[in-house]
Amino acid sequence: xxxxxxxxxxxxxxxxxxxxxxxxxxxxxxxxxxxxxxxxxxxxxxxxxxxxxxxxxxxxxxxxxxxxxxxxxxxxxxxxxxxxxxxxxxxxxxxxxxxxxxxxxxxxxxxxxxxxxxx
Amino acid sequence: xxxxxxxxxxxxxxxxxxxxxxxxxxxxxxxxxxxxxxxxxxxxxxxxxxxxxxxxxxxxxxxxxxxxxxxxxxxxxxxxxxxxxxxxxxxxxxxxxxxxxxxxxxxxxxxxxxxxxxxxxxxxxxxxxxxxxxxxxxxxxxxxxxxxxxxxxxxxxxxxxxxxxxxxxxxxxxxxxxxxxxxxxxxxxxxxxxxxxxxxxxxxxxxxxxxxxxxxxxxxxxxxxxxxxxxxxxxxxxxxxxxxxxxxxxxxxxxxxxxxxxxxxxxxxxxxxxxxxxxxxxxxxxxxxxxxxxxxxxxxxxxxxxxxxxxxxxxxxxxxxxxxxxxxxxxxxxxxxxxxxxxxxxxxxxxxxxxxxxxxxxxxxxxxxxxxxxxxxxxxxxxxxxxxxxxxxxxxxxxxxxxxxxxxxxxxxxxxxxxxxxxxxxxxxxxxxxxxxxxxxxxxxxxxxxxxxxxxxxxxxxxxxxxxxx
Lengths: 119, 470
Known about the structure:
The complex is a heterodimer. Chain A has a single domain (about 5-115), classed as Nonspecific Lipid-transfer Protein, Chain A. Helices cover about 45% and strands about 25% of the residues of chain A. Chain A contains 5 helices and 5 strands, in the order ααββββααβα. A 5-stranded mixed β-sheet of chain A has the order 3-2-1-4-5. Chain B contains 15 helices and 20 strands. Chain B has 3 domains: about 15-50 and about 225-300 and about 405-460, FAD/NAD(P)-binding domain (3-Layer(bba) Sandwich); about 55-75 and about 90-110 and about 210-220 and about 305-405, Alpha-Beta Complex (Polyamine Oxidase, Chain A, domain 2), CATH 3.90.660; about 120-205, Guanine Nucleotide Dissociation Inhibitor, domain 1 (Orthogonal Bundle). The two termini of chain B are about 30 Å apart. By secondary structure, chain B is an alpha/beta fold. In chain B, strands 1, 2, 10, 11, 12, 13, 14 and 20 form an 8-stranded mixed β-sheet that branches. In chain B, strands 8-7-16-17-18-15-19 form a 7-stranded mixed β-sheet, sandwiched between helices. The longest helix of chain B has 19 residues, at about 115-135. Chain B has helices at about 25-35, 75-85, 115-135, 150-155, 155-165, 165-180, 190-200, 205, 225-235, 275-280, 290-295, 355-360, 365-380, 415, 445-460; strands at about 15-20, 40, 55, 60-65, 70, 90, 95-100, 105-110, 215-220, 235-240, 245-250, 250-255, 265-275, 285, 305-310, 320-325, 330-335, 345-355, 390-395, 430. In chain B, β16 (about 320-325) and β17 form a beta hairpin. The chains are: A alpha+beta, B alpha/beta. The interface of A and B includes residues 24, 103 and 118 of A.
């Protein structure tokens, strides 16, 4: 299990690396979305917004309507943002579940993979 | 084993003649029979299944020499598998995959090799870009895309050169192209690649095992549902009867077959269920329209050889490997675990595709065998060099396929003559996976194309059953 504070810290790290990665920025082109994160074990919920090719801050709770909902264990969220787990393997095993349009799922899958590889 | 009659029969004139007993032709014929129409299926080979062929090796092990997988979203194939009493099991994925790059082996998990972070990230970004572009291109009418002319003027290779930043990602995308199309990126139009990818969902879904086109296999072999369909059609399926001429007019067609029993068949309508270039072997009278003739000549088959190496057991699983290999050079660029569900023996299936396949022609059967086993051994260890059995299936030298797995289009073909792919010519209709609106190039697409052609014919045969000569 990971605490909310740990998830915030890991996300902050992921966000600054992501926003500094030109390849990731290019992949965000034309993709302004609200993403909700749901930690299946702790019940914690978060919202992050992508606007104009920039990953925004993580905020507590589910803010407004979601384009995309990601469900995973709190530890998987922390590991994902720290770059300690290969997200495509987790999606494949159904341990991380993405709900959204096929394009949104495709984008987030690729974004998280690129962020993972950017370690 | 074959349930169809091989003795010459003369059923008299029928409503519809179907040319080709692959999945497209058999499905079409079955739909027509279900609708009360009289049908004859003329097949050039001495077997049904077309590019799907399950061969039992001397040891008694069945292997799929052609199309073999079924994946999510392939509902036509899935329901036919069910209906014919066949069953499926997941392709073996447990363990790590191998990447052979610059002569070095790396292990990885997931869709994309991860040994070089930058190259891998570039590969993921490239796949995403391809997937997003593909979503915009209609798999049914790709020429209707607002940017169709520009996309169709470009080869896939030109797009790769302009978009992909790292040599590693370029090599991986090229390997994926060879595996999917049996063709090199420079041989294919970008519009064609995008339309083809969208027809199967996305490029990512075409190359995935779990969650993609390679997800499951059929216990009984991928040809079993075709054999069951042929069994239902019984004497209507006439084997070893290559069609050489089709004389067609407003009231019907006369179809001439060669082979051991040359003769003529008569019908109100004809469905030709074969790859475009293979339909070029048939003499049409009157000649086909110019756009159809051009399409036939400008839609070549891919080049692919499938090899199977059979071992006492799937020894790579004991090393924590799942049998998958992706290589940046050499003849064998993609390999999968193809062992039976009970793992009674271990089987690796490998693909030699595109220019590598053409390069291997001169080596001969024995030369290819030792070369390919050497490549397998360099990835899976010395045990891989000594299989109990080894077979190759060279689709390029199959007279009635001319290559595989699918036909591809170079620049300028789709936008110029694409609509001729499905458009009937008088009483002649077209089926086959190349004409499919979804999963083009796959067994599922072959099946849906057969159903679509049957619907066309039934709509055209508006008069009560029995017209058209019978």
